[in-house]
Amino acid sequence: MSAELLVGIDVGTYSSKGVLVSLDGQILRQHVIPHGISLPAPGHVEQDAEEVWWADTVALLRELLSGPYSGADVAGIALSAIGPTLLPLDREGRPLRPGILYGVDTRGGAQIDALQAEIGEEAIFAHSGMALTSQAIGPKMRWLREREPEVWARTRTLTTASSYLTFRLTGRHVMDHHTAAHSMPLYDPRARTWSAGFAPPVLGDRGLELLPDLAWSEELAGYVTAEAAAQTGLREGTPVAVGTVDALSEAVSVGAVNPGDLMIMYGSTTFFVLVQEAPTPDPRVWTVGGAFAGQHNLAAGMSTTGSLTRWFVDELAREHPTGEAYNVLFTEAAGIAPGADGLLLLPYFSGERTPINDPRARGVIAGLTLAHTRAHLFRAVLEGVGYGIRQNIEAFRDLGADVRRIVAVGGGARTRTWLQIVSDISGEAQVLPGRTVGASYGDAFLAGRAAGFLGPEDLNRWVKIADTIQPNAAPKADYDRLYGLYRDLYVQTRPTVHALSRSAG
Questions:
Q1: CATH placement of domain 5-246
Q2: Which of 8, 29, 301, 391 is most buried, by the most CB atoms less than 10 A from its CB?
Q3: What is the pLDDT, as a whole number, of residue 505?
């Protein structure tokens, strides 16, 4: 067999996934490896780059390239991962500490305040097209410089998860434009390049030489080295795409690549990617680049959604195995009427990203009575996420962004109960692709682009829509009223939960 297969690898928050795909989009093999996260301190969320990111990548490749397949069959590979994350490397490219995760890690609050005081909020927004939030990597770079000076002194490269994996395969440090945009205030989205103007407040006396090269996700990063080939089973010289964050590859995987397409990824967090013809910057959300050269994206993200249901299962459904517990809980929740009999939940269990951008927000459950059951609580969890999704969609439309089609994807999108709740709350239809493998499938397509085998139009052959979730009219009035209460509840409880957040460290 000639080299006509494509590999996609995605390293997510709680698992890593790999697929082996033919040039026409048929999945030949796939494999999943679960893993965890580390919570070393309140607000700190980390993963080990060597023991999780790279080890999972090697294990997935060894599994995919076994039996009837080998590295000689692979025409190209692309990798995505959680992001934007921060990983410092030494001069040999070795990690100096665990990776600091994306917006669920809220450690950079003091550094955000300092950067805003030194540069100015308006100046940062004017330069970056985004406000500084827990999603931003610039403040976490400053945190590393201030809080871990020994690590900082040894750092020669500041990279992210997908870029680190691409480096391990190719020996080249390169980052995609989508991820780089979150390194504000170091990235200039107009010039599509690193910018030294605001570097000193972030990097101190270090310069932009700490940062990787820049390229588009679909471009060629380099080729598999002899060392990487020996570890992974890939063929030396195999083309490697630049890659990107998992959410952007997820959008590619379901064909959300045309202006007006909004992908909602129901994962450990909920992530939104809206493709635009022209950017519409707003401090509530994120203005970033797309996967394909020259594209504009508007992005947003909630901090705790799938991970909230996972917490619920682990803490309140221990009598069932995990997979069975989800089935039980979703069945129970489907039997509860909209509104959960007066329960309302704010899903801010790890702070919240867009559109409130409040790392000190916390989960709130309001309206509990002795009549409420576990089923009511789980229904309130699903509805709380639904209200947050509606708030993000409304934020897009408030700033004039054009949302024409919503595509649902991710683990939560396999549960019709949750999708129907979201459509009923938001009043929005959601289309479902026939194949929802996830970001790894989008990675495989990016691999085909980088290797020169696929054009953008080939995505139409890879992705077919199978179903549409239409909103029900009956619960609209109740959900509209509860949505208003949801927004009020955050404002009214904010002083209390902020005080509790400070008291917890």
A1: 3.30.420.40
A2: 8
A3: 62
Question: What are residue 261's DSSP bridge partners?
Answer: 405
CATH class held by domain 255-435+473-505: alpha beta
Local confidence band at 267 (pLDDT 50, 70, 90 cut-offs): confident
Task: Look at 277-281, 335-339, 410-414, 453-457 and tell me which has the smallest mean pLDDT.
Answer: 410-414
Judged against a pLDDT cut of 80, whether residue 189 lies above it is answered with: yes
CA distance linking residue 57 with residue 74, whole number of Å: 15
Which tokens go with 87?
Answer: 């990983």
Spatial CA neighbour of 239 closest among 354, 77, 391, 359 = 77
Residue with tokens 């391990």: 168
430 near 8, Cβ under 8 Å?
no
User: What are the DSSP E strand ranges found in 290-389?
Assistant: 296-302, 344-346, 364-366
What proportions of the chain, in percent to the nearest 5, are helix, strand and coil?
40, 25, 35
And the tokens for 452?
């020169």
Residue type, 260: G
Please state, in angstroms and as integers, the Cα–Cα distance from residue 178 to each residue in 188, 288, 293, 502, following that order.
12, 5, 11, 33
Domain spans in the chain, listed from the N-terminal domain onward: 5-246, 255-435+473-505
The CA distance from 139 to 145, in Å, is 10
Encode 457-476: b = buried (16+ Cβ within 10 Å), e = exposed: ebbeebbeeeeebebeeebe
Q: Sign of torsion, CA 23 25 26 31?
A: positive
The predicted model scores a pTM of: 0.87
Run of H or E residues at 31: strand 27-34
Report the pLDDT value the prediction gives residue 414, as an integer from 0 to 100. Answer: 85
Distance in angstroms (rounded) separating the CA atoms of residues 310 and 44: 19
